[in-house]
Input
Amino acid sequence: MKVSFRGGVHPAHHSKRPTQHLPVEAFVSDTVRIIMSMHIGAPSTPCVKKGDLVKVGQVIGEPVGALGIPVHASVSGEVIAVEKIPYLGAQPVECVTIRNDFADTWVELNPLGNVESVDPALIVPAIKNAGICGMGGASFPTHIKLSPREGQQCETILVNGAECETHLTADHRLMLENSDRIVDGVRAAMRAVNAKEGIIAIEDNKPDAIKAMIKACHGRENVRVQVMRTKYPQGGEKQLIEACTGKQVPSGKLPLDVGVVVLNVGTCAAIADAVIDGKPLIERITTVTGGVRNPANLLLRIGTITEDVIGHCGGFAVTPGKVCFGGAMTGLCLPNISIPMAKSTNGIVVYSEEEAASVEEDACIRCGKCVSVCPIGLNPFEIKLAADKDDMEKAKSLNVMDCVLCGCCSFECPARRWLTASFKMAKQKIAAQAKAKGGK
Amino acid sequence: MSLITSTAPHIRSRLNTQKIMLNVIISLLPCALAGIFYFGYRAAIVMAVAMVSAVAAEFIWQKLAKKPVKVNDCSAAVTGLLLALCITPTAPWWMVMIGSVFAIIIVKQLFGGIGDNFLNPALAARAVLLASWPARMTAHIAVTTFPGVDVVASATPLAGGEASMLQLLFGQVPGAIGETCKIAILIGFVYLLITKTITFEVPVVTMLSAFVLSWALGMNPVTTVLSGGLLFGAVYMATDYTTSPMNRWPRVIYAAGIGCMTVLIRKFGAYPEGVTYAILLMNILTPLLDRMLPNRVYGHSRKKEAK
Output
């Protein structure tokens, strides 16, 4: 039986994914720029200095705070700069630049071996030491997800193979080419938290991936594939849980409160690498598509510079208007292409000037389309009116904090209103106000 | 190289306000053609006057009020056409013009323009015309299959005229320009559904509730749903975005209210027809219905929602 959630949209670009049949190829550039804040939580502290020689997998950033994870060198070579650079957010971030010597000398690894026989207590520390954070986009540190608090019990490891975003095929290719690794990672996560079942959820537009994963699950304990209807945002954490378990995460709570931990397929493969081989997270698959000459699925070292990636893909095929990390529904715009990709960069999508042209906002005609597509059941048009008047109390009472910023309402709105953008601002504003209040 | 940065999403659906309004106009073409076929050139004149004066009124208002001129969103044209289709083909040009101007200026623009009016502009204008010139508004003519041939005044089936099922279905009865030919309305309905301009709930529930209540009251339910402006109102007027509820259950209640109220007015009221007032009444209740029955928000308990 195929499962789904209420609301959602079918973006037109959904069916057009030129990279879905292209095997993953590795690309290693001569310089990487590794930023220290690739995860949610305090940035790591660089522990190397200019001129140091580093090996692949060597820790170059020490974790800070409860959510901290280490950062590793993704190539071997010489550190040529440790500096603050502008990144996607407002604040500049600490960055370590390494010139690749192409020798690929690794640090000594500490493999734990077979996921079925390893001591479960060693799994979460191994995940932390490997610097793993959510690779589907949100970059939440994985070891925290797998550390239930007092009174919480993880029943289900829910693995996100929906890849519902437009353009992206990184998870799709991973499921086809590395299915066993994913299942190993799921088993490791299950054993770490003593979960009863593992569910690998995939949209029905990827029949080959479904087949490959069913095959990989064969003979493995309590792991199964769940087929879902193709609809955006099927891969949103809340929607995925609703579709696969029938449960809803209470407002303001975490999936663990309903006994679920959601992990991306890429994260699972990284967990398997960390446990079986002791390998830290130093590379990932990224889909490069849109206005580039040769779209591709690339296995990139973390910190590869966008410009190098686009160059490797034959350069721009259009006059670029926008370059984004991630798909069209939630992707983040790059201010320039010297920005390096990070652990959560599942795609680099180039839009032409025409595609990127700004759309003018018209008056709301109250068609109700935003209401019918909202997977959370909000009234986006009404929240937008409150947000435009800067009435944060009203926005809060209309549950803007439950908004997952999926973009469905903005996508669907015939008046082209910037709904999602204003909710993002409202959420930030309300969070800042709450913080200021708490600080007094 | 300078890149544009903006907040996601980076793609938008193809349907915009203008395309939605054009879809409505396209879906009204069968009704308009049927009107011309049955009632001749007079129908064409009424439609032309109504549309031109609606667009002109909107244009002049937006110019005078120093607002951005948005007549090319086609919403005023839709209002004009809807008004023309729900009045009699014998309506004099000045009456049609007054109706259009009233719909655009008083009902739509004075309340804030597109999206902010609380009544359906075309219907409110029709109600005003009906109240101001009752005799002219009900001066219906018999249909002719030869456009241009002079016709004699005649009673609509609701006002006591006789008509067979087939005549009702194909619109060979006296009535408003676009309301008589049910087949044409159904074709338009299907088009609106296919283009996802409207959803099926409101028209279907309206018709069903009218059918059931008229049956319960001992009226002929088939004649009830096939006569007068009920089907036209259910498909084109009750589904107006701005004045109908957004949430599913409020939509159902709203539609059931229209169906039932129409039948009650027809049965017990002084007017032979009740669709206009039924829809206007439910328009007024729309904000209340949406407020009383909000959608359940993901992750919120039902209990909390009830307070």
Summary: The mean pLDDT of chain A is 93. The two ends of chain A are 52 Å apart (CA to CA). Chain A has 14 helices and 17 strands. Residues 290 and 350 of chain A are 5 Å apart (CA to CA).
